[in-house]
Amino acid sequence: MAAKRKKRKNSRSPIVLFFIIILAVLAILYNQFGEKLGLPDLFGSFEQQTTTPPPVPDGEEVLIHMIDVGQGDAILVMTSDGNMLIDTGESTAREELVSYFNSVNITSFEYVVFTHPDSDHIGNADYIVQNYSIKNIIMPDKVSTTKTYERMIDAIENSQANVIMAEPGYEFYLGALQNTIIAPNKDYKDPNEASVVIKSTYGDTSIMLTGDAEKESEADILSIWSKDALKCNVLKVGHHGSSTSTSPAFLDAVDPTIALISCGEGNKYGHPLPETIKKLEDRGITIYRTDKNGSIVIRTDGKEFTLISTEK
User: Fold this and answer.
1) Domain containing 134 — which CATH number?
2) pTM for the model
3) d(CA 300, CA 259)
């Protein structure tokens, strides 16, 4: 039988109570006056709470590469202040991914986002973590029992990267590129629904990066975020153009002029589904897709998005 623990008397000393009171007063002062008292230096940086992004420097552009990794996602965002990678594709696409990085001289990332644990999004995660310099990793609080996921976690634990669990409303920056986490907004059973969704804003332009978020996550996004907060010029279509994503209400809220779809040529799922394509075409949205166009590169100068090239 387990031994019962003896009850201890409440024996807090006056000194302990004094420090508790001091900490409580500091917390109140921080909530009331914040930065005016210099308290962010005491409690840590609160840069991610900033709501007004820095102005876009003249002549500086952001490049967004949707890399053709077959049936999967790998999106590279390049800025003069560092790079961001969203997902890595399947392990079978490693050679293509590394070759692409070499072609644009990528050796490091300020941020790497693993949107959710499916292998077509984290298949090369362990390799990327082990072979590239990474400052920050963003991922959802969603675990998996797959070998792919376990290899990723082992690599992260052996790295020097700062790990950030995705929370809606969290903001981070690459210079003037403001990135806001839009989802996940609750604990989902389906790993697709748990996808990290990010809105990246550069000047007057923005892109919604959705991972494999499906209709439940989209509905929660719509119930929490205003249309003004969701409106974007470009939408990375959720779940490779599956019918389980891109609900009419979500599409109307984001209201993009360009849609990007990452999917493999002749994939067994039939992605993108005809009904998804029809929803986009009915709204006059220009569609670029990796199975038809290969890797896609667009740029923004903070005023508009422009297609630079496609691979095919």
Assistant:
1) 3.60.15.10
2) 0.83
3) 15
Token digits for 87? Answer: 């997902």
DSSP 4: P
DSSP assignment of 43-97 equals H---GGG--SPPPPPTT--EEEEE---SSS--EEEEETTEEEEE----GGGHHHH
Grade residue 21 by pLDDT with cuts at 50, 70 and 90.
low
Question: pLDDT tens across 148-202, in order?
Answer: 999 999 999 999 999 999 999 999 999 999 999 999 999 999 999 999 999 999 9
Which pair of tokens denotes residue 246? Answer: 């891109």
172 contacts 148 by C-beta, under 8 angstroms: no
Cα dihedral 278, 282, 288, 293, rounded to 10, equals 60
Q: For residue 231, is it within any domain?
A: yes
| Residue 3: band (very low, low, confident or very high) from pLDDT cuts 50, 70, 90 | very low
Please indicate, yes or no, if residue 35 is contained in any of the structural domains.
Answer: no
Domain with 93, as residue range(s), is 61-310
Residue 46 included in any domain: no
Q: Is residue 15 part of a domain?
A: no
pLDDT surpassing 60 at residue 47:
no
